[in-house]
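pls design
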């Protein structure tokens, strides 16, 4: 049985519908809190259906052992949390479930246009809404009086640095970033231009520097490789590293470095009064907690109230910006390495068509992980949806459509 294939059966239609509803609801949580519950229910149903499909399709034997070992280690971390007197039951169960199923999302059992198209179409409304909000605020700056309301409701933030471009940072903006990557990798021609323009504008308006970094990584890695047929007997193209393109990249970097450094300095200067000090503060506090128990961590669902800072009061926070370090502080370094290896092994064991396809998927995953790693997005309840859409996209299936050939 396959997940989200063409000519789907009843099981696969249900999987597709729950996937679409989960993405649509999660990307619109800033519109109404009612979308949160709908998104969670749809995400749970999709996870059950997709995991069932993968189990029926069959894992490699080693994957079963790795998953069992990972679940055992994760359960041990749960016990550590209980022994430490952690009464944050919601946080403990949330991270236990997310970290249990997240490795399975890296295992692909095929490709289908339904998977990534569902994410793209479901993200369109929220991306267009973000763009419209930015335009409306630029035309009516007095609406900034609504900013405290956004803070109080935990919806996000809207602000401007120059009085022209209004940054709209709302929950669910990560889906615009993922949709942009999928559009660049899977579409061509006018469709690529239209969708990339919408999602690209939404990403820029979101003002998230790590998203921009992920897009840059995607373009660099796709440019450094070209598709080539080694000989006439080769049935499919192979990704070949291009030394000449590397030289071009180095020359561009050399001549553009003054401009890039100046732009980077201006961005860091803008973030100096807010997000950058908070991230540095979180790094210091989380590493301090990690080094207290580097092997076993502080236990799952480590309450943020134990982070004592003169800069921010974390007692009312439900997440931090640097989730990677937060997760390592919870489960310890050896457990995180096992988690990473389990994800990598399942991904390498995926059923892909050609080495070209695997390369295209790897570039997508790397760019997405880099773009999400500096934000509280990668280890939330939507992570399974995002990784599944990337692994089951059509990227590289038709080399003529891939951006490597442009």
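designed seq:
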């Amino acid at each position: 049985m396959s997940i989200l294939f063409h000519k789907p059966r009843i099981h696969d239609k249900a999987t597709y519908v729950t996937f679409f509803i989960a993405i649509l609801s999660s990307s619109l949580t800033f519109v109404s809190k009612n979308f949160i519950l709908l998104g969670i229910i749809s995400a749970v149903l999709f996870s059950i259906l997709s995991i069932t499909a993968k189990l029926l399709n069959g894992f490699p034997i080693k994957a079963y052992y790795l998953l069992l070992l990972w679940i055992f280690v994760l359960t041990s971390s749960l016990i550590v949390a209980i022994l430490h007197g952690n009464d944050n039951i919601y946080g403990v169960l949330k991270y236990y479930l997310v970290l249990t199923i997240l490795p399975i999302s890296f295992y692909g059992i095929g490709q289908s246009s339904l998977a990534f198209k569902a994410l793209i179409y479901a993200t369109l409304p929220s991306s267009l809404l973000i763009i419209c909000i930015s335009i409306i605020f630029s035309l009516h700056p007095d609406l900034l009086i609504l900013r405290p309301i956004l803070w109080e409701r935990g919806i996000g933030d809207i602000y401007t640095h120059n009085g022209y471009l209004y940054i709209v940072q709302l929950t669910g903006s990560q889906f615009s970033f993922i949709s942009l990557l999928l559009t660049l990798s899977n579409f061509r021609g006018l469709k690529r231009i239209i969708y990339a323009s919408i999602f690209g504008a939404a990403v820029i308006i979101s003002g998230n520097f790590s998203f921009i970094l992920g897009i840059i990584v995607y373009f660099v890695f796709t440019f450094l490789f070209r598709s080539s047929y080694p000989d006439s007997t080769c049935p499919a193209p192979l990704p070949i590293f291009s030394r000449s393109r590397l030289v071009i990249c180095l020359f561009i970097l050399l001549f553009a470095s003054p401009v890039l450094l100046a732009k980077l300095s201006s961005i860091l200067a803008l973030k100096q009064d807010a997000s950058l000090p908070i991230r540095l503060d979180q790094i210091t506090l989380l590493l301090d907690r990690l080094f207290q128990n580097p092997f076993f961590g502080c236990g799952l669902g480590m309450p943020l109230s134990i982070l004592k800072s003169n800069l921010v009061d974390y007692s009312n926070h439900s997440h931090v910006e640097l989730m990677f370090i937060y997760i390592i502080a919870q489960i310890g370094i050896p457990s995180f390495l096992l988690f990473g290896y389990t994800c990598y092994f399942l991904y390498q064991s995926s059923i892909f068509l050609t080495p070209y396809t695997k390369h295209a998927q790897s570039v997508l995953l790397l760019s997405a992980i880099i773009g999400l790693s500096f934000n509280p997005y990668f280890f939330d309840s939507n992570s399974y949806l995002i990784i599944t859409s990337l692994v089951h996209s059509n990227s590289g299936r038709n080399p003529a459509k891939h951006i490597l050939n442009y």
